[in-house]
Structure prediction request, 469 residues.
Amino acid sequence: MGFRQLILTALAIAFPVGIVFIVLASMGQLGVGTAILSALLSWLGVVAMLRIYFGDLRRVARYATDLRDRYKGTPPQHISFAAASELSSLYTQIAAAFRDRIALLEAQTSTDAEILDHLPNPVVMVNRQRVVTGFNRAAKGLFHNLETGRDLTRFIRDPILLDAFDDVANERETMKHAEFVLASDAHRHFDVLTARLPAATGDRNYVLTFSDLTELRKLEQMRADFATDAGHELRTPLSVLLGFIETLEGPAKDDPDALNQFLPVMRDQAQRMQHLIEDLLSLARIELNEHTPPSEDCDVGKIIGKVAQSLAMKAQDKGMNIRVTSTLDDTGMVGEEKELTQVFVNLVENAIKYGHANTDVEVSISLAKNPPGALARFRHDRIMAVAIRDHSDGIAREHLPRLTERFYRVDTARSRAVGGTGLGLAIVKHLVQRHRGTMQIESEQGVGSVFTVYLPAKTGDNVRKLHTA
Ligand SMILES: Nc1ncnc2c1ncn2[C@@H]1O[C@H](COP(=O)(O)OP(=O)(O)O)[C@@H](O)[C@H]1O
Ligand SMILES: [Mg+2]
Prediction:
């Protein structure tokens, strides 16, 4: 408020008093000089008061300006008028309420961003003009050059995906799935859900959520491969059998020598089919109950003893011995004897089959010193390590990770020659997993291999853990 305004306002306020003095003077009640002096004095009094009042208001206004510009400020110190100081404290309260609200909104926004960043699925937000307006960390991991403010087609060029986006953008649908393969990595399949967001989401009108289907597709492929492999495995012995049958029905009819010669081969082939079917059924059954842990008590030491005994003859045929050693007194655990027998029969049989003649198969039972990471949750308990060591050509490093895959063999002809189905280690792996254990394979070429089965031993708490795991 300017000086002129102050003078004029004071004049306006003092005007009625001035009139009174003029009237009094004109009636002779008051000397002219006294009247003028009194009027002047009361006018000056009003000016002085107004100056203070305007000063208060000006300081409150300055405070309000600070609050408007910076959301903070120091409230004026010396306020004379109660109304002005009330106004000032009201501003303080309003500013505080705003600050709280802003802090809340900011926290909310950063929490939302944080949550988005912690989602494993890539998420990209797009506006009506198909310009990227936001994305999470996973999306950045997928499209390294992703940037806001750029057209979506700079990052995604797949026509199927863009068509799906257009369908949603043109309001033909509120959301739509589309499958796409990452241009930079043909092995990665994604399902992309494009959805329209409610109008109140600012410049984030559409959201694209990516779900990785790679593992699922791989699994589907594996299942298809498995059926094909099983078919092939069965076809070979079957066609051999049929060939012999045709020969015996035709050219070798009534030839007892041929019959005697063919019959053992036919039996071999039929047995091979029988083994294969048994293994296939076994695998299917194991997969079904893999997720229900065993509940019976058993003794690994005893099981190994029986297995060694039952395979002793087979070993002796190759001039081999099965030597069992144990450093544990108590080898009890929660497990199914039949299944653990199957595990160790498979492993010892492999050691006999693939080991050199006249060498020993060594089976040792001990306490695991460094159990594999997969068993970390049993770190407070005893883990038994059952190692089956053979002396053989060994297995080349590149085969090791794949040995437990179904039908995976290092040397198919050799495996078949020794009556293998290629399913043994796959069965072993599932059975060990069902017992909450794990298997490690080590091999040195020209020396031999060690297959170590780690199993949680039955000690106190362990039993409960096995059941709740
Ligand atoms: N002790 C071993 N020494 C060398 N190779 C082995 C041994 N155990 C398994 N293998 C390799 O792993 C493959 C898969 O084993 P497995 O599943 O038991 O099938 P198979 O029926 O052929 O024995 C075998 O074909 C063989 O190539
Ligand atoms: Mg085997």
Notes: Residues 461-469 have pLDDT under 50 and may be disordered. The first strand starts at residue 123 and ends at 126.
